[in-house]
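Structure ticket #2291
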Amino acid sequence: KGIQARDCAVGQAISVTSTYSATELLEAFDEAKAWRDSLDEHQDKVEQYDKDLVEYRKKFDEFVKKKEEAEAKPEKAAEKTGGKEEKPPEPPKRPTRPKEPKPSAARDLLIEALDGHFAVRVEADDAEDIRRLLRLRTEHNLDLVILGGWWADQVAQELAEAEVPVVLAALPDHHAERFPERSLVARWRALRAAGVTVALASGGGEGAQSLLLARAGELVAAGEDVAEVWAALTTVPAQLLGLDKEFGSLGKDRSASMLLFGGSSPFDASAPFKAHKPR
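Resolution: structure written out below.
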């Protein structure tokens, strides 16, 4: 279900499938595009080969016919040449089928992404790496999502213009006390102010799932809009995963887990809650 995706990591992000430098990832997609272009050229050559093969068969049939005639009536052939030995006709040269470019399983996945069959989710923290990924998005029109995005707020306007969403991790802000400008709240505000679509995720760290609601609560406590924060936990992730037709909101024929909260809102840390999933 949902959108299939090719997960990668660049820079120091090493927690997912493939790790590259941003430049290497760009080069990998450029190489995949060049290979696909060569495959298109190969197809053109195959079509020409098929035409040449039809022409070859005609010429070969003519060659066989002439040879049989010469062998059946050698006297007439000698008369035509004034008694000189006639050079036997040479058979036409059979065309050679063009060799197909060698396939590669890893390259095939990139080509699927270039063709829009896969989304590309890249874990990236450095602002310059994210800029390079935006170039990848522009040049190849990829369905791109930035994961982690520790410095994504530094290129917020560029992300908004490229319509590239960011999934912020709910991992603790190790430097938030010394550098409050790098807190989750500050980074969220910068991205949302620029118009970037933002989702919240656990970040993949051990036990980080339990922090997700608490970190979202920090945003609400700092004055961020409750509906936007709740959407970042529900409808926005469902959209990014291609599951918004079935998950992310309540409605007829949709699948959902039900959370019953006490208190004023789901972000009231003092309120108990219970989870219920229909069987």
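Closing remark: The first helix runs from residue 22 to 72.
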